[in-house]
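ok so I'm stuck.
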Amino acid sequence: MEYTISIKWGDDDVRHQASQMGVTLTDEQIINVLNLVKNNHDADYGVTWDTIEWAIESELRPAK
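replied:
not stuck anymore, here's the structure
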């Protein structure tokens, strides 16, 4: 028998963290944030509120 767990982070989590940061994100930006988290999180630590905050900051940073 195989046992697994799954921890899910979603758009409500991103909206909550953005609200805590005093910013509002569009649906497109939220999708971008979730993709940043998925593709860049540290597998040794998993996803944390700090990870989501970093991704929001990255999404809001002007492109160079």
